[in-house]
Structures are given as structure tokens and as C-alpha cells.
Fold:
Amino acid sequence: MVVGMKIHATPFVGTLLLGLVISCSVEKPDRPMASRYDERYRPQFHFSPAENWMNDPNGLVYLAGEYHLFYQYNPEGTRWGHMSWGHAVSPDLLHWEHLPVALSEQPGYMIFSGSAVIDWNNSSGLGTVETPPLVAIFTAAAEGNQSQSIAVSQDRGRTFKEYPGNPVVDLGEADFRDPKVFWYEPGQEWIMVVSMAAALKVQFYASKDLRQWQLLSEFGPAGAQQKPNWECPDLFPVLVDGQPGVTRWVLKVDLGANAIAGGSGGEYFVGGFDGKEFRPDSPIDVVHWVDYGPDFYASQSWSDIPAEDGRRIWVGWMNNWAYAQDIPTHPWRSAQSIPRSLSLKKRGENWRLAQEPVVELQQLRIAEGAFYLEGKSWKEAAAEIERARVAGDLLEIRMSVSGSPRKPFGLSVREGEQEETRVGVQPEGPLLFLDRSESGDASFYNGFGRRFEAPLSGSLDGGLDLHLFVDSSSVEVFADDGTAVITAQIFPRRESTGVSLFGEGDDLVVDRLEIWKLGSVWRETARD
Ligand code: FRU
Structure:
């Protein structure tokens, strides 16, 4: 969202009216009926609320066998407004149980984005050591003033009480939001990274008790020059590929507009954090994009994933402020991306953030109807797919190719009469691309139907892996070891389920191709 709340002035009134209408005609969002989740475009293995508007993931924290997903939610309508924290929990990052709204809009302020931690030592004194409190740190967004507040849960996030001493950080600023808090072991204190959105910088604060916070330093402006604001920062150490136990720090921030794919998007900086300051490894104006597609925003990583697991996992809001409120879905709007596990990979002299779909997703593969081949020429592979009539609206596709092709090649998915979404590689560059210009309904936003590109490192001779996840209304593609990622919503017809290869594939060998149909996490059955 660009520049505080101004942009929402008009939708707010509309939302209020819409909210009144909706609330008398449908059941409560926390009790979805079993037959729901089969609407047109309804994501089958991505999280979406049963009804109403959702934006950023919030308060991602793991506790006692549950991954918590809180999220920016409008309980009263399908557009932005009345911001509250919706809530769901999952044992495996795939199957979600909806819980009642956790933090509701209050008279005078809305509950904007933020994070959650488990206060294991009860440093806040707001719980007990026996039952460590789950503490949410969020922005209380009033007209003209955004401040940071905390709320405490002693029943695994089911209910919260606001801390009576709120707000805990208040600068009297209109654009000051989205606190992300983590425990910094070397300093034995909590660190908060929070955005001074309009000033294009983040601030770092420290606290011993989550209540009193001291300013440490600032970072920014930096990176992309064209940004109108900075939101939703996250800061975390990430394992460096090939060097067990070694980490570098990643600072991620989001731009409300003018990002790489148009509209909103995220960038990141790799560097060092010494408990006080963040210092990037690259010159201050170097830009690294998180995702080269249009629909991955406000990503946040889970806190408190057990050390035995050791992964840093995040999800992003799979939408774009440029058109988010107009996408043709009903009675919900927006989904979260698939969860992705993060690492750092060396590209030249630089570390690049790599995203990999979490392994849990493999549980969704349906053995029946799986397609597999190896060691075929491009033309042979294309013919085999055609012969096997490979099709599906929920798919995982893995393809490894090698060669020195001169022309673009790739996969077309969600193919139907006059519809297709193309994911391919352009040797010149080389580039990964996703083209949604013929993908289906694009009528709600001028400029929705277009092609997105991500740079690939090196030549294709050494081989290239493509990894795709196709859901009812999205495609996510990971290439170049997860350093080139494109996430895009699409709105095809239900019956557009074809899959084919395109391009001449001169000199290309398909070393391996796997196509899996995936099951629905809401209904546990295949779709077709
Ligand atoms: C990002 C954002 C945050 C804010 C929230 C409000 O998408 O604009 O900065 O906290 O959405 O819903």
C-alpha cells in the first residue's frame, strides 16, 4: 500500500457498506462449510480465507506443533478496510485450520502488520516461564499516527490481551509501521526492525523485555531508487550454501509501487548485522529483487522454528497493490504463496537469496497419472506429452534440460481454447520468463496480461532446472537453484488444463521431466 492510509480513503466507505450486506447473507468466516473451497479460481493448495479480504502475512510463529499464520484481514468485506489479524494454524504448512479473528480493529485504530515471538524466558513478565507467552508486535494505525503495540496470548494464540502500557514505540509519525521482532542471542535481547515507510528507511530498536525499546540505528534509503515507500521489513540470518553452520544476514523490504514487475514487490540486501547496525556487502544502490513476478509481497519468515529443523521459511502475499482489490475472485480476495525455504547461493562475488518450495509440498503429489521421462530430445519429449494427454489444473512440474539452444523454449500450462500461460527460457540473456498475456481473465486491470522476466546466471550448457507449481489461479516458477523466481496470478477457465512444450528446442536435451497432479489441501482429493 502506498503512502499510509490516504489511498484507502474511498474504498473504506465502500467496504463499510459492502460489509453490512455480506454479514447478513453468509456464515461466519471461522466456520467454513466443507463444500466451500470449490469456487471458481479458489486456490487448492495455497492458503486463502474462507471469505473476505486478506493481505500481508503477519505474526508467523511456530509453537508446540503448530505453524501460526496471522494475516491482515477485513472481517467485513472483500476489499481493504477494518484491518484486523485473521488467524489459522497448520501442523505441516499445507493444511490450515481457520481460527477466529485474533486481533480486531479497535475504536480509533486498525491493527496493521507485525510479527509474533515466543517469549521463552518470560522476559516481558507478561506470562510465566512454565507457559511462555506468545507476544504479537503490531502497528496500531490511527488517522495520522502509526505506533507499535504489543498483545499477549497465553493460550497458543487463541486469545490476546493488549498490553496496558501500549504503545511501546510512538514517534508521532504518520508512516511508521510493520515491526518484525526476533531474539538476538549474542546480545541477549530482542531486536525490532520497523519501517519509516515514507522516509524510505528502516529503524532498528533493542529491548530486554519487549516493552521498552531503544533506537539503535537506521538503514536506508538504499537499493531501488524509484520507490515511493518501504514497508514490511524482515531481518534474519540465512545459511550460506555449501558452508555448514555459516550464515549471512538478509534484510528484506517491500516497495508499495514501481517494483521490478510493476506495482508492488520486494527487494533485499545481504550483509552483516552486529546487534546494532546492518551493513550491506554490496554498494548501497545495488538492487536485488526477491521475486521477479508481480504477485509476491510483504513476505515474512517464521519465528521460532525448532533448531533441529533449522529452516528459515517464509510466505508472501500473492497479490499486488496495483490491482489486488479488483481480482475476479469471490467471496474471498487473495491467497498466500506456497511456503519457501531460504538459503544463500554464490553468484559471482555476490550472495543471492535462493527460495525453494518446502519439501512438505511433496505430500500433495498424486501417484496416479504422474508423467515421467528422461533423456529425450525436445521434440520427442513434446510428442510424448501430447500422446499422454498430460493435463491438470493443480500441478507440480520439474524439468531439467541441457544444451545450447538459440531460440526460446518452455512449457505452456493452463492451456485451453485461446488460453495459455507460458513459462520459458530465452537463451539471449539468458532469461527466465512467465507470460500471462493470454492466461485468461485480465479485464479488471489494464496491464495485467503481460510477460515477466528474471535474469539467469551463466549459460545454459551446464543444464537448467525449472520447478513449477500451478494452482487454480496462480503459477510459481523457481529456476537457477531458486535464485530466479516468478510468482504470478492467472485467472483461466476451469477447463483450461492442457500442458505442452513450446519452442523448437534445437539442440536441447530434456534430461528429466516429472509432472505430478496435486491434491487439494481443503478436500484431500484430486480435482479431476
Ligand atoms: C503492506 C501494508 C503494510 C500495512 C498493511 C495494512 O501491504 O501496506 O505496510 O501494515 O499493508 O494493511
Notes: The pocket of beta-D-fructofuranose is lined by residues 1, 55-56, 72, 83, 112-113, 139, 177-178, 231-232, 298 (CB under 6 Å). The first strand starts at residue 52 and ends at 63. The chain is about 5% helix and 45% strand. The domain at 364-518 is CATH 2.60.120.560 (Jelly Rolls).
